[in-house]
Amino acid sequence: MHAEIEVSGREIPQFFVSTAQRARETFDGLTIGWPLLGEQFPNYDDALYTFDKADLIDWIAAANDGLDSIALIGHNPAMTELANFLCLRLALSNLPTAGWLWFGFDDDSWGASVQSPGRGRCHTLYTPKSGKLL
């Protein structure tokens, strides 16, 4: 990961992270390049240790509707498939290792947001090679 992530003018999303060691290391690496992120405590969740997009969709559907956006650190192929399902314009072939997604929806509930493809609003896609939030 780059030493500093270009984040000027951005809010800090709520992070939800798989309990896998590699996912935890990805979040820890982000805090080095995004110092304000280090003030946040990520939510580690065993349910995010999945390789199935349907599991992630179920997880999002149950998310707290009080959250405006969610940042996820998980595992492929589920993360790539989720990104392509929620944010059609991305058309990713693969979310690289240490990549993560930050997204939201215009719907009032997370459950309603994942009922059909293309309803997501991807705030950003981060890849370690870019060193910036895209």
Short description:
The protein is an alpha/beta fold and 134 residues long.
Structural commentary:
The structure is a single chain. The protein is built from four helices and five strands. The protein has a five-stranded mixed β-sheet, with helices on both faces. The protein has a single domain, classed as Phosphoglycerate mutase-like (Rossmann fold). Helix 2 packs across helix 3. It has 134 residues and is α/β, with parallel strands linked by helices. Mean pLDDT is 82; it is low at 1-6. The relative contact order is 0.20.
How would you describe this structure in keywords?
Rossmann fold, disordered N terminus, 5 strands, alpha/beta, 134 residues, globular, 4 helices, five-stranded mixed beta sheet
Count of structural domains:
1
| Head-to-tail CA distance between termini | 15 Å
The helical percent reads 25-40%
**Outline:** globular
What's the assembly state of these chains? single chain
Return the CATH architecture: 3-Layer(aba) Sandwich
Proportion in β-strands: 15-25%
What class do helices, strands and sheet pairing give? alpha/beta
The largest β sheet comes out as: 5 strands, mixed
SSE layout:
Layout: E1 15-18, H1 21-33, E2 43-45, H2 53-61, E3 69-73, H3 78-86, E4 100-105, H4 110-113, E5 120-126
Parallel strand pairs: 1-2, 1-3
Antiparallel strand pairs: 3-4, 4-5
